[in-house]
Amino acid sequence: MPALALSVNAREVHLDVPREASLLHVLRNDLNLNGPKYGCGLGQCGACTVHVDGVAARSCVIPAHGVAGRHITTLEGLGTRDSWHPVQQAFEQAQAAQCGYCLNGMVMQAAALLAREPHPSEARIRDELSGNLCRCGTHVEILEAVRQAALLASQGEAA
Questions:
Q1: What is the pLDDT of residue 2?
Q2: How many whole angstroms separate alpha carbon 138 and alpha carbon 55?
Q3: pTM of the predicted model, to two decimals?
Q4: Element (H, E) at 7
Q5: How would you class 40 by CB atoms within 10 Å of its CB: exposed for 0-12, middle for 13-18, buried for 19 or more?
Q6: Which CATH topology does 86-158 take?
Q7: Does residue 44 carry a pLDDT above 70?
Q8: CA atoms within 13 A on the CB side of 18
């Protein structure tokens, strides 16, 4: 199997994985990072979203060898138990999860949006999250959480 070097959550990892292995399978099966979920396997539902060099990406359709040398951030690397990312904090405060399956994708997509656009409009938030599916119907709470996250992040900048 070919050797693969990745930077995952600011940690260098070296693995031997098949060329056809998806980034999602490497993260979950080889690195035990279970934030990204397997949803559709087609890059359409968003459950597997991670950041690749700060950009939200669907890990189920990305070959792991295709991101060698790039910086991968998963939900586990976004914040810590002692210091949550503002999006994680806002999702908890807004009680934006029901079953939680979509949560990884929603949080990672929202964090990428707020990194590029700290004060998005309601329409921009809706557009950004439109490709992330939530079967439970907590869309109202999720939108509220992203609005709260933008406020939390701006308060953190002011401090």
A1: 87
A2: 24
A3: 0.93
A4: strand 3-8
A5: middle
A6: DNA polymerase; domain 1 (1.10.150)
A7: yes
A8: 5
Domain ranges of the chain: 3-78, 86-158
Does the domain spanning 3-78 belong to CATH 3.10.20.30? Answer: yes
Measure the CA–CA gap between 115 and 13, rounded to whole angstroms. 25
User: Of 108, 110, 137, which is closest to residue 50 (Cα–Cα)?
Assistant: 108
Residue 22: DSSP 8-state: B
Q: Summarize pLDDT for 102-115 with one digit per residue, the tens.
A: 999 999 999 999 99
Q: Mutual orientation of helices 139-158 and 122-129 as an angle, nearest 10°?
A: 120
Distance CA 2, CA 108 (A): 29
Strand arrangement, sheet containing 49-52: 11-16, 3-8, 71-73, 49-52, 55-58
Specify which residues 16 forms β-bridges with.
3
**Alpha helical stretches, state H, 96-138:** 103-116, 122-129
Helical ranges in the chain per DSSP H: 23-25, 75-78, 86-93, 103-116, 122-129, 139-158
Return the DSSP state at 30.
I
Residue type, 35: G
Angle at 93 between CA 88 and CA 94, to 5 degrees: 100
